[in-house]
């Protein structure tokens, strides 16, 4: 099953996207609909609300008077928390029922207006954000909901900012154009990314770039992409995970790199990752464990063992290196990254070596092997930098 979180500001066109996903075959779960369902007339949820807030929150026909309840909870933070303690568990339970009913071979789209505000992104394989410019949103809200400009601006100001949504978004759907343009973008996302992503999760298949070597200029979004992946890895590993870091070239600002995010997970023992329950949990999270013997080559000819995972997302290739905390391999990945970040001369030297190799080497495999002598040659320099600066790992 592939879980997709869908969100967007008021008036952005999120409902249009949700409808299109439903047409394409997704199981769409609307959080707003469930919020109403759990306090429907005769429901235990409504009874609990009335017990807490009194009969004044009811209409004459026994339905919930949302305006009356809203006037209470928006003026009183404790009252709002009390309402959330009643409704949120009910909504979560109903959501879980619908997800289970969707079956394993499916794409579930969870339409959640406050996904960013509630920091829920790590619970999904992907977060899709629908956005439009402020003027377009104001016009839609006046046309479709009859809002005044002041009302619309007040609602917009109370929601997450564009910057917060961009940080949370794996996919950004721009809805400043026509409805047809938006539908085309959703169809393309469905066909090119979501359908193969779901299959990869189901079959435990990692995504891979073609073996042709392509170096990309520095991408300022790499750190945010890594942060989202790390949050999902923490959830997937659970208590087995001790540390989680963005490493490799994409973790060094200004450095050219293959468009592959390298991540390091630190564990107490590699055997923890061999537990079938952990392997299955990681597969379901979209990070299949790749079988076989994996290790890094040390300068003295010894090897540093590790486990290796990949991302199942066909549009975001990521390599996850699992090493024991405080092992030589774990420490080296962090020292090298931090040296590169701190030393412009070393960073420029590494970039030049990358570019030199790219002029004669055509495959990623050859490129990885060809860099080994350079790594060996700078090993002591990196270690000397760590000693001279009193470097300690970010985990203490």
From TrEMBL:
**Catalytic EC class:** transferase
Chief location of this protein within or outside the cell: cytoplasm
Looking at the keywords, is Kinase present? Answer: yes
The pathway where this protein functions is: Cofactor biosynthesis; coenzyme A biosynthesis; CoA from (R)-pantothenate: step 5/5
Q: Does the keyword Repeat apply?
A: no
The organism's superkingdom is given as: Bacteria
| Physiological role | Catalyzes the phosphorylation of the 3'-hydroxyl group of dephosphocoenzyme A to form coenzyme A.
UniProt cross-references to HAMAP family, sorted A to Z? Dephospho_CoA_kinase
What is the protein's name according to its record?
Answer: Dephospho-CoA kinase
Q: Its gene?
A: coaE
